[in-house]
Design goal:
Layout: H1 7-22, E1 30-34, E2 39-44, E3 51-59, H2 63-70, H3 74-79, E4 83-93, E5 96-103, E6 114-125, E7 128-135, E8 146-147, E9 149-150, E10 153-159, E11 167-173, E12 175-176, H4 183-206
Parallel strand pairs: 6-8
Antiparallel strand pairs: 1-2, 2-3, 3-11, 4-5, 5-6, 6-7, 7-10, 9-12, 10-11
Amino acid sequence: MDQLPDAAPLATKLRNTLVQYHSIPDSEWRVAKRTKDATVWRKPSEEFSGYLYKAQGVVEDVTNRIVDHIRPGPYRLDWDSLMTTMDIMETFEENCCVMRYTTAGQLLNIIAPREFVDFSYTTSYEDGLLTCGISLDYGEVRPNFVRGFNHPCGWFCVPLKDYPSHSLLTGYIQTELRGMLPQSAVDTAMSSTLANFYSDLKKALKT
């Protein structure tokens, strides 16, 4: 079992990586899925052989409340249909932690349940917030789960200038599900999961 990394340099590096993703020009992205709630794009990842996904949509709520629903904490399990368990394993500061969570099977269980251990960091960004994470090789893998790996991922949430009660939520996700999976199944699941994330989040914020 690996030691936990030093939180401060990891948090800084993670934030810088996400800000770099946020500045990738539009011409490099290809649309993967559009719904009334969000648009999902993708481009080849520089971290592994799959894709870096970008998702974006307007959410009708203030930035802090949206991010409280996304980052590790009591809200996330209530509304995120993909997440089945979540435990905070370590807390470094108020805005830094290590969490272990499991996800449900997808595509009629072609994609079996997965387990992840992620370092999570939430910080200010422009007038809003950035909550980001990266997987760690830490802790024993539980039986009946394949251990997946999240390369740098994150969500930027900033208020709309003319409508401060609405926020623009932009996510960058690159998940290596691992295990023996056809890449086409993974790509289908990722685009749909990200689009559903927005519709589920909007429903949760209204309750």
